[in-house]
What does this fold into?
Amino acid sequence: MGETLGLDEARAERSARVVPLQSNGESSRRRSCEARGELARPPGRQSERGFALILEIWVLALLSVIAAVMAADVHAGAVEARNRLDLAQARATADAGVALAIEGLLNPDQTARWQADGRPYAVEYDGSPVEVHVTDEGGKIDLNGAPIELIAGLLDEFGVAAGQRSALTQAILRRRSAFAAAALAAAAKRAIEDRFRFRRDVTFTNADKLAFANVSEVRLIPGMTGELYRQLLPYLTTYSQSPTINPLTAPRAILLAIPGISPDDVDAFLAARAQAADQPTPPPLPGAGRYVRIADLRIVTINAQAGFAGPARFERQAVVLASPNLPLDEVRVLEWRLARDPAAADPAAPVAVGPIARN
It folds into this structure.
């Protein structure tokens, strides 16, 4: 029995050396955790779990950004495709507006015939609206043949200073003289409207001898600014072949440029012209003198703008040889381009509803 007691004491001594003593609080917490089935986790495992959670959040955020970028790119592509489609439709509608204008100008019914005085015509083609302006080139100031005082008067209408006006008119005269000196002696003695003729293919026989073969060449004149050029552009031409202007189609700014004409006379004439549009006898323009001459319609500029409802807008400008006095096969397109200046029409002209409408 003594041996048994000694053995028990030895075991108790070894247990005391191997198992650390715990306080009553630690023992109770351990027993509580063991009762709930929870296992104690090392501190290193807890930090790894937190890092993995942060990594997952970053991955989700990156995927969200990629998805948003892809969705925005797809939307932008759809918008671009829609804009291209709208622009193509606006282009086709504007081109159709030019054709409708030619048809309106050649209408045998004089009461429904379009007027080439710059008034806007609101028409439709295939359900799309298009606004069309038709201006007679004969109602503009010809850079090659108009009296220089008529050009000076037009410069006055746009508030050009006296010094700049004198420099511009003198530069135009010098350019005319330089080209006239290079022409044949016989051509130099003829009147300006005989210097070139329209053939059937609408080419100029002496176009290379003209001081201004195109209106855009006026930008080469020293002292001509970009803003002034844009203001003068709707009122200048090289197609009229005449030193005079047609008072039946000339806009208000050109009529005011005539020397000796007051604004009251011009306004009274325009009012009478609008009332007598279908009358065989046009109203008189007192004081116009040698600067005006009534002539048949021959060459017109057509501006057709389409796409008013959406962001896609297109404006076509065409210079056309078309007249109700010419046979239909004589219609020729002389220029076909994007409109350079939408202000070609007289802003004081009344709005007209065209008789042509297509669905």
